[in-house]
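This week, look over our next protein:
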Amino acid sequence: MGQLISYTQDENTFTLQYEKEQLIIKVIREDIINFFIPLRFKEHYSKAVEEDKSVPCKVTAGMKEGEFLLETKSLKVRAGSDLALTVSGSDNRVLMHTHGAGRKSGAVVSEETRKILEAEGHDASKMDTGDYPVQLVLDLDEGDDFYGLGDKSGFLNKKYYEYENWNSDIPQAHNEDYHALYKSVPVLFCKKKQAVYGLFFDNTFHSYLNLGKESTDYFYYGADDGNLD
């Protein structure tokens, strides 16, 4: 993304201009905010929500020392360079924060094994945990638990598991290691020690969620294509 240069405002929609890309922040209501990065499509349109659901609400915004600051009655947003993003409650308690150190991912299989798999006709393109074209990495705080995602295997609390949003009907045992089932519901709720927030990933492409399994320092959402929305 590079450095944050400037921003423009159109009612409750704010377009942040970075060196390499734009971040569009729209206040839907005082406790719901949409973040949109136009990676594949330049215009935002929801694949799940019909019509514009935004309602008028009081919003204050401005820039200070290279950061964009936005505040509603319920939420505070701070956006800095390279998409350093923090969302807090009205009491200043941090709800979510982008993981500045990035992912510490490594290969699942060796390069030798990958070559053998490909020589045998297998698709080895997903046999690593490298960065995705669309990716959001957030801090995982002590006491964070995860719920939601609809029709998924495993326990009610999804912490320390990984999942795919890619509808599948494969005749095998649906144990906790089974990553995808019949439908995809990309809605995730994070229960913190003293707060709860929800994330809706509005993306129909093949996507992945790792909720602390790869690292106890962060969790991430990654997608093969589309927008970060």
About this structure: The mean pLDDT is 84. The CA atoms of residues 98 and 132 lie 16 Å apart. The helical segments are 111-119. Residues 111-119 form the longest helix (9 residues).
